[in-house]
Amino acid sequence: MKMPGSSRNVLLVLSICTLLGSACSKIYERCELAKELRDRLRVPAEQLATWVCIAEHESRYNTSIIGTLAQGKDHGIFQISDLYWCETGDVGGACGIDCNSLLDDDIRDDYVCARRIYRAHQGLQGNGFRAWAVYQPHCSAGQAANEAKYTNDCFGQDSSRVEEPAQRIQVDQQPGALTLYFTGFGYPYYTYQNIF
Fold it and tell me: Which of these is catalytic: 32, 36, 56, 58?
């Protein structure tokens, strides 16, 4: 039986990660995770400290953690269950991902799936964070208390506000060329160059 190309690629990456051990996983520092969530993944300011709290109590900020339950396992930094949300060794579950992809150092897919879990439980329970068992005993203290404990010292004076950077247009004119750059969300990116 011939494996599709994407399955071979996933198997190859997982094999390499297994051989290299921690090279494909990561243990975040608290403020490093807060900055990753805020700056790269655009977590809403009012939820940032709670997500950091959940990651601390679920995985101790370790992306490669697999928790064993009576039925099934939990995966990654947010301990996402393979009973419903992901499938081990295959793309599936409600998040449409392989649980093994939650064990690497890229937490974008972890957060996307965690947001899906949050939204589902928001509709069911009125508070999406209740999907995580650690929320009630450790992270439900309220926004101000969570910010003081998990994020205030990460961003300088006012970590409670995540301000969207203004998009700017920069025009570089050189003889024979017009180059436009747009910047936003903290990352400059090149958009257009026209040679006259």
Answer: 58
Q: How far apart are CA 151 and CA 157, in angstroms?
A: 11
Q: How crowded is the C-beta side of 33, counted as CA atoms within 13 Å? A: 27
Q: Is the pTM of this model over 0.85?
A: no
Q: Which member of 74, 82, 104, 109 is catalytic?
A: 74
Would you call 74 a catalytic residue per the annotation? yes
125-148 pLDDT per residue, tens = 899 999 999 999 999 998 999 999
- The alpha-helical segments, DSSP class H, found in 60-185 are 108-125, 143-150
Check if the beta carbon of residue 99 is closer than 8 Å to that of residue 65. Answer: no
Smallest Cα–Cα separation from 118: which of 32, 35, 69, 47?
47
At residue 4, what is the residue type?
Answer: P
Q: Does 58 qualify as catalytic in the annotation?
A: yes
